[in-house]
Amino acid sequence: MREHNLAVVLGEVARQQPVSRARVAAATGLTKTTVSALVADLVRERLVVQAEATREEGDRGRPGSGLSLDGDHVAALGCEISVGRLAVSVLDLQLRQRVRLERWADNRRDPATVLGEISEFAAEAVRLAGEQGLWVVGATVAVPALLDRTASRIVVAPNLGWHDVPLDQRWSGVLGAGALPTHVDNEANLAAIGELRLGAGASHESFMLVTGEVGIGAGLVIDSAVHSGASGYAGELGHVVVRPDGDRCGCGARGCLETVAGKESLLRAAGLDPRAGLGPLIEAVGSAEPRALAAVDAAAEALAVALAAAVNIVDPGAIILGGPLAAIGPRLLHTLDRGLTARLRTLRGSTPRVLASALGDDSAVLGGAVAVFDAVVADPRLVMTRSGRHRG
Amino acid sequence: MREHNLAVVLGEVARQQPVSRARVAAATGLTKTTVSALVADLVRERLVVQAEATREEGDRGRPGSGLSLDGDHVAALGCEISVGRLAVSVLDLQLRQRVRLERWADNRRDPATVLGEISEFAAEAVRLAGEQGLWVVGATVAVPALLDRTASRIVVAPNLGWHDVPLDQRWSGVLGAGALPTHVDNEANLAAIGELRLGAGASHESFMLVTGEVGIGAGLVIDSAVHSGASGYAGELGHVVVRPDGDRCGCGARGCLETVAGKESLLRAAGLDPRAGLGPLIEAVGSAEPRALAAVDAAAEALAVALAAAVNIVDPGAIILGGPLAAIGPRLLHTLDRGLTARLRTLRGSTPRVLASALGDDSAVLGGAVAVFDAVVADPRLVMTRSGRHRG
Questions:
Q1: Closest Cα of chain A to B230: distance in Å?
Q2: What is the per-residue burial (b if ≥16 Cβ within 10 Å, else e) of B255-275?
Q3: Which position among A286, A390, B124, B190 has the lowest Cβ density within 10 Å, counted as fewest Cβ atoms?
């Protein structure tokens, strides 16, 4: 019961901060005495801090003291292994980014080596956070992969060429004693959490975030929560078939969206080096190079077919474009919009809004750190107990 | 507060029946005295009945009296207007079917005329229910259509050729005074409710029910509730594009699933009368008539493309096939299964189970009646207040 009430109070502070004890009591149905005792524990464990005095509507007498999450002690780490990059980010409880490291590398290599590198990178971020007085209580690692339900093993990451990789090969010891177990999660799902809490999705209860790099993934948010599917494999937008007689995809099917609009397919179709960045493509589109224009138009048209399928099936309130597809710019967006309108407007009267991601490449690392805090707010004892041990 | 507690008690009885007052009190956190008073009201209003005495584990002394929903008084009406049929069904609170009427008719006519006919049909069902001592407290009308949010107006029913039709043109007076307002809802969504509560979906928290007739729709169930989408237009599986350069569809797009696997398209491709029933097609498949086999295989392959898209995007726990596609039989199911496996197995390791609907053509009418009861259980006062008026 006490565990449950701690979570209730911390959740209320997180949602309403700054907020008085009286208002927390009113919102939760707990007595003021109980709230005060629980708040005292949360303050002692440095999850909550007493901010400037506030006088709230309906409060009489002395102004209530404003409670907020403590942004100066507890922190979380988001990490991302994508095909071409390693990135780590440390957020404090106020969701301010305090450390950010990234480095470009082709990660289509031995998974143990890559996990060793991200572990070193993460350890460096934890050290830099420590210099700011922050204790990193947990980490999430984003991977473009299907994962098992325990979130500790990569089942298959087709675009990395990885199969059946447990996280703990190189990870142990990155976080200090007493930290939460590190989870791995699908890059698109974490990116959707990032957009939901810090980005373009904040004003939508339901949206589909399109992300990815070599592959194309999607994070599906329904009722303000990520929908991960019955097997945990929802959002595989890149494998929606857009050309039934098209090229063979790594997944065994023909004509998947990725075979037309994945970054490498797109660069190849434009006559460019498939392992290069998007710079040359954006330049070629800018100078109206015919092959580049045709490749971008084909990708946008394929994306329209797949997204129209998603709208017909799920009917999200908005579509948020992240990753390289957003970076290509207005030519792609214009063709995409035309393709969606042609397929959706007659029946529906309108098409969902297509927005650009507000976080760009960072949505998954940020979402990974946010996911750690969600676990902490749902059960602060996890951290409090360990925090005792950590200090002991 | 009292209204809320009435709903809590009725909901507990509905879930646990037969159940003792003591157990209801324990499950809801209400006192036994409060539960007894609320139960007395629900019994007086004939929503709950005291069934045979039961002695439950943990109960001491006299056996608790078993409370159940009263299956002998309150009833609900489900109606369906499909392209080729009108159907109505009356369920009692125990979800037993007490009246069922159906009639074949081509409903691609003036909506006012068809609404007049379904109203007469419904009035006949209400009369027959009344002869059994049942009071029909509400009705839902299933239509293969997109509906507005108030559920009282059909925005567009493409396969009926209807646009902007308010329900109340011919409906008023079908139910007696004091009944709930009648709602219209999408046929596939109601069919999904039917399957969830009475059919093949009962053992799945998430599934996609494929239904339809001339068109193809889907009802998407997530976490045991129908997901109707941000605009209420989820589940339009028939308009997922399966052949980007295919035939023009009524919706304005090319190569929608309906243009290949909709009943009329399928019959036409098989060289049969598109307005006939499925009998001749099933017969032609049975005698291995090449055009019929090719048409069924093409439909199954198109369905596999669209359902693989749905699995990639939503990852439902099961797929339930209803409507004509299920009726065609093993040839279609076999090709569909092969098509799903080819597209999904490499990445996922498995494909979701494909089940046949347990309710056949009745899932939508039954789901419509269930939806009325869900509203009653959520707020029994709606019916109780009116029930007083009804009797007055």
A1: 5
A2: bbbbbbbbbbbbbebbebeee
A3: A286
Torsion of CA A256, A257, A263, A266, to 10 degrees: 90
Contact B121, B86 (CB under 8 A): yes
Cβ distance B113 to B86 under 8 Å?
no
Q: Which of A286, A309, A383, A296 is nearest to A336 (CA)?
A: A296
Q: What is the pLDDT of residues A210-237, one digit of tens each?
A: 997 788 999 999 999 999 999 989 999 9
- For residue A350, the chain B residues in CB contact (below 8 A) are 231
Nearest CB partner across the interface for A342, out of B252, B305, B313: B252
Contacts of A236 in chain B (CB under 8 A): 312-313, 315, 347
DSSP A45: T
- Contact at CB, B156 and A347, closer than 8 angstroms: yes
Strand partners, B135: B74
pLDDT band (50, 70, 90) for residue A391? very low
> Is residue B93 within 8 Å of B74, Cβ to Cβ?
yes
Query: What does the block give as tokens for A373?
Result: 């805090």
Q: B198-224, pLDDT tens digit by residue? A: 988 888 999 999 997 788 999 999 999
pLDDT of residue A178: 81
- Is residue B160 classed as helix, strand or coil in its secondary structure? coil
Give the chain B residue whose CA is nearest to the CA of A162. B347
Handedness of CA A251, A256, A262, A264 (dihedral sign): positive
Cβ of A22 under 8 Å from any chain B Cβ? Answer: no
Q: What is the three-class DSSP state of B226? A: strand
Give the number of residues written for chain B: 392
The alpha-helical segments, DSSP class H, found in chain B are 2-16, 21-28, 32-44, 111-131, 168-171, 187-198, 257-261, 263-269, 279-286, 290-314, 323-327, 330-348, 363-378, 381-391
- Going across the sheet that includes A318-321, the strands are A225-226, A216-222, A207-212, A318-321, A353-356
Which pLDDT value is given to residue B169? Answer: 59
Query: Residue B392's pLDDT band (boundaries 50, 70, 90)?
Result: very low
Cα gap A129→A90, rounded to integer Å: 7
- Reported as a pLDDT band with limits 50, 70 and 90, residue A392 is very low
Q: What is the mean pLDDT of residues B308-335?
A: 92
How many other CB atoms sit within 10 Å of the CB of residue A389?
A: 10
State how beta strands B48-54 and A353-356 pair.
Answer: unpaired
pLDDT at B176: 80
Is A315 part of the contact surface with chain B (CB cutoff 8 Å)?
Answer: yes
State how far the Cα of A42 lies from the Cα of A70, in Å rounded to an integer.
9
Question: What is the three-class DSSP state of B98?
Answer: strand
| B243-249 long-range Cβ contacts below 8 angstroms, 24+ apart | B243/A244, B243/B302, B244/A242, B244/A243, B244/A301, B244/A305
Residue B391 binned pLDDT confidence (cut-offs 50, 70, 90): very low
